[in-house]
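Example for tutorial group B:
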C-alpha cells in the first residue's frame, strides 16, 4: 500500500468514526436518553478503526511509516487536538452544563454526550485537516 492511500484510509476511518460519535452526541442531547444506540457500538467502532489504522500500517512499503508520520502528520494531529478539544471545552461543554443545571438534560445523558463529542471533535478535525492537505 502506498503512503498516500494509507493517509486517505486513516483520514476516512477517523472521519467516519467521528461522524458516528457526533451523531450519537447530538441524538443524546435531542432525545435526553443516553441509550439512543447500543452502548457497545461506539467502543466497537473505535476499536475497529484503531485496528484498521494499525493493521494496514504493516502493509506500507519500506519507509512508508516514516512518510505517514512525518512532520506534516504531527502538525495536523496537534492542530486537530488543539482545535477539536479546545472548541469542545470552550463551546460545547458550557452549553451542556447549562442544559444540565436547568434540568433539560439528565446527568447521564449530559456526560455521555460530552464524552462522545470530545472524541468526535478530534477525529473530525483530523480528517478535515488531512483532507485539506492531501
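The residue assignment follows.
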Amino acid at each position: 500500500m502506498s503512503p498516500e492511500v494509507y493517509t486517505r484510509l486513516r483520514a476516512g476511518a477517523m472521519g467516519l468514526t467521528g461522524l458516528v460519535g457526533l451523531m450519537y452526541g447530538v441524538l443524546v442531547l435531542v432525545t435526553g436518553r443516553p441509550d439512543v444506540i447500543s452502548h457497545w457500538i461506539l467502543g466497537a467502532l473505535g476499536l475497529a478503526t484503531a485496528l484498521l489504522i494499525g493493521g494496514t500500517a504493516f502493509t506500507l512499503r519500506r519507509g512508508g511509516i516514516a512518510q505517514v508520520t512525518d512532520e506534516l502528520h504531527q502538525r495536523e494531529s496537534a492542530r486537530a487536538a488543539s482545535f477539536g478539544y479546545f472548541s469542545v471545552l470552550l463551546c460545547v461543554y458550557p452549553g451542556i452544563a447549562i442544559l444540565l443545571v436547568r434540568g433539560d438534560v439528565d446527568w447521564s445523558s449530559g456526560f455521555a454526550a460530552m464524552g462522545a463529542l470530545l472524541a468526535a471533535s478530534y477525529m473530525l478535525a483530523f480528517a478535515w485537516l488531512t483532507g485539506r492537505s492531501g
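The chain is about 80% helix and 0% strand. Compare this with the pattern of hydrophobic and polar residues in the output above.
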